[in-house]
Design a protein that fits this description.
Blueprint: H1 6-12, H2 14-18, H3 22-47, E1 58-59, E2 71-73, E3 80-81, E4 93-95, E5 102-103
Parallel strand pairs: 1-3, 2-4, 3-5
């Protein structure tokens, strides 16, 4: 399911690891890898018809990467929309309930 294996990720970030640049490494992993993994997991749940958002209080980073829907209503239990939650999606209209506390 995941595009990159651990070995591929290590190869991709080898120079940073060899030079002990772990601050940069972790920032890159968070920015590049985590959204992809989260996006793939959310996509798999959506494809299976599982309404996973009703069990959450936030929309995770990268959750709807590449989603093809144009309109979306945020469930009322959601309090936070994380950064890049809808990155590269076709979203054109979003309904945000008044209880949202944070939009990154």
């Amino acid at each position: 399911m995941l595009r990159n294996t651990t070995k591929e990720l290590i190869q991709k970030y080898r120079k940073l690891i060899e030079h002990n640049e772990f601050d940069v490494l972790f920032r890159k992993i968070q920015a590049e890898v985590v959204p992809t993994i989260t996006g793939e997991i959310c996509s798999a749940l959506r494809s299976a018809g599982i309404d996973f958002l009703k069990h959450m209080t936030y929309i995770p980073e990268g959750c709807f990467i590449g989603a093809t829907f144009e309109k979306f209503t945020i469930p009322s239990n959601i309090e936070k929309i994380c950064w890049k939650a809808f990155m590269y999606s076709d979203l054109q209209n979003i309904v945000i309930p008044s209880n949202i506390k944070i939009v990154e």
